[in-house]
Amino acid sequence: MTPNDRTAKGGGSYGPLNSPSLNSPEHESLIGSSRQRSQAYGLREMDAPDFSVAGRGLLNQTLEENSFLYQHAAPVMETLYQQIANTQSMVLLTTRSGMVLHSLGDADFLEKASQVALAPGVDWSEKSKGTNAIGTALTEEHPVVVHGSQHFLEANRFLTCSCTPIFDPYGKVMGALDVTGDHRSYHQHTMALARMSAQMIENHMYADVFPKEIIVRFHARAEFLGTLMEGIAVFTGDGRFVTANRSAQFQLTLSANALGAHTFSSLFGVSISQFHDRVRTAGTRPMNLCLHNGVTVCCISDVKSRMPFGGMHFGATASASDEPAADTQAKAPAKADAPSTAASRDAQRRESLSSLRYLDTGDTQVAAVIQKLYKVRGRDIPVMILGETGTGKDLLAQAIHNDSPRAGNNFVSVNCASIPETLIESELFGYEEGAFTGAKRKGSVGKVLFANGGTLFLDEIGDMPKHLQARLLRVLQERKVSPLGAGKEVEVDVAVICATNKNLKDMIARGEFREDLYYRLNGLVVRLPALRERQDLEVVTRKILASVCHSPTPIGISNQVMNLFHQFPWPGNFRQLYNLLRTAVVMVGCNEDIQMHHLPDDFLEEVQMADLVLPRASVKQMEVIRPAPEQAPAMTAPSAPPPFASTKLENVALGAMAQALRSTGGNVSVAAKMLGVSRNTIYRKKALLPADVWG
Ligand SMILES: Nc1ncnc2c1ncn2[C@@H]1O[C@H](COP(=O)(O)OP(=O)(O)OP(=O)(O)O)[C@@H](O)[C@H]1O
């Protein structure tokens, strides 16, 4: 379904999708169709609900697959929950198939909800539970309230549920957000709250789904920018329409399908390069643009820079995919503004962008690299960055650019390994209109010219085909480019940074890399240390954690895990650490410290294969369960469990929870206090605990 279809289903409203009001004819017909489907699935009203919970492996896998959804939804769920706290309700997040991923709720109500298995790992699709808000909203791809007796299964009729699908920026359902409560506590505003929360999640996703594209946020009234009402439209670097949210479609008075035929300039009346200039001048202030339909809107755009730890800030950055079509570029592409304004802008930008200073987090090798780079700053000396995969070469290149006087112009990154060999020439050097059959109608300026005035970053330079190495060398020596089929040369002024994890000298010896190009590129050679060599592992771990966990309380990491991190060889370097922490944060839910059992099994397998042994002392420091000293129940304490057996640790944790619950007659609040964990931690494991623990 496209956003356009959603518009049709939403009855023409471009605000939050409306659900048909309770007991209206539309609502009754929707419930009626759902009941028919429930019967067709072979369900009977008096059936006991299917309580089965996905096994731990499947739940973990599902969490991992849905980690993007979870990360965006979890903080919004917290806010939503705060608004409905103490109303005998809970908030649930599900996958698009209806499996519950995460739940937050009032302790009393959670007890009741657990009786009908409203818990992570349980399937609430229509097929499994018949008419219910989650299953029905997902089937209808529309917000739905299912109240009391409208539930198909008798067992669920004490509930009132308001659920709305969550759509990805392309209009595909990716999950659902549900508020469920006791049917006596039904409130008509609950659905609106749920829908607004879902819209908040949807709007927040744009920046992460489109890290390289141009995102324009606009509204006729400046005060609506940054709110749920703002229009969001996404364009490629050369101005092609990608997608837009419902508000944008409404303001542009065009459906998503119709928008597909438009470009940035046909909708906003200015070319992308003019727009960039205006963004630079306006800074973070909204600027006025006139839409194609004559409506004037206030607009902001974050033309982005790739930041370490996932941050995004204002800046002029282009990546390999941001190449402008030749028609939007002047013959000599964008130069820096006048030096005086450029200087003050650069100063501001340096504060906000990924900068060398930002990468200096306490490792002496990195500090030495940064010192060297400061010395050549602004000298246009070619920099060659060496380092294993994932050590941050790309990030360093970006920081060098952002800290240079060229920061006001484009940073163009070309991954020589990922462009097909047949395309690399035209991608780099551009082509003239009609240069070859099938070429874009207007031709293309190519990455090198697009970087004019800025920085060209040649990543994986060792993978550049030999015949193109000669052409690149000529460009670097003569500072001129001749696009394919152009028959003329265009002057170009770029700073060049290249990176590789190959040994270029060996390649030269084997005749695979040109020696003359090597010496042209290696003005200053710097090597980024592997993560296992760095002394600032703890600092970077905490920084990454802060960036991947959006919880107001910083997430911690247990000593045991940190000890393991210190011993692990990190073959994938930062990339591996980043992905690992992102997954662990999903497992831990931003409320506790990361423990061994939150680490993914494949990582623990790697650990075992690397034959690492943790000191026994660190095993004893295990903080999975931290009982209050005086009240510690006689639990199956982990005197010395095998270091990396995550399942065993999980069992220890479950054993402790079971004992604590038994000793408190099933009182979750007291048990949680005894164990030093949150109530939600226990509820999350509820399905894995034996039935007799509940008193
Ligand atoms: N100093 C750092 N602190 C935190 N995260 C970092 C750091 N350096 C890199 N990263 C993160 O690690 C990942 C890989 O970084 P990057 O792409 O710069 O590495 P690379 O050396 O260019 O990798 P490759 O050789 O595979 O292209 C990115 O997600 C990046 O944000």
TrEMBL record:
Q: Which GO terms describe its biological process?
A: regulation of DNA-templated transcription
Q: Output the PROSITE patterns linked to this UniProt entry.
A: SIGMA54_INTERACT_1, SIGMA54_INTERACT_2, SIGMA54_INTERACT_4
Keywords carried by this UniProt record: ATP-binding, DNA-binding, Nucleotide-binding, Transcription, Transcription regulation
Per the record, which residues fall in region Disordered?
Answer: 1-37, 318-349
Under the heading SUPFAM superfamilies, the entry gives: Homeodomain-like, P-loop containing nucleoside triphosphate hydrolases
The UniProt regions of compositional bias labelled Low complexity, in chain numbering, are 326-344
Q: Which SMART domains match?
A: AAA
Annotated Sigma-54 factor interaction domain ranges read 359-586
The reply to whether Aminoacyl-tRNA synthetase figures as a keyword in the UniProt entry is: no
- Could you tell me which Pfam families the record lists for this protein? AAA_lid_14 (PF25601), GAF (PF01590), HTH_8 (PF02954), Sigma54_activat (PF00158)
| GO MF annotation: an example | sequence-specific DNA binding
Q: Which domain of life is it from?
A: Bacteria
Q: What's the protein called, per UniProt?
A: Sigma-54-dependent Fis family transcriptional regulator
What organism is listed for this UniProt entry?
A: Rhodoferax lacus
Q: What is the lineage of its organism?
A: Bacteria, Pseudomonadati, Pseudomonadota, Betaproteobacteria, Burkholderiales
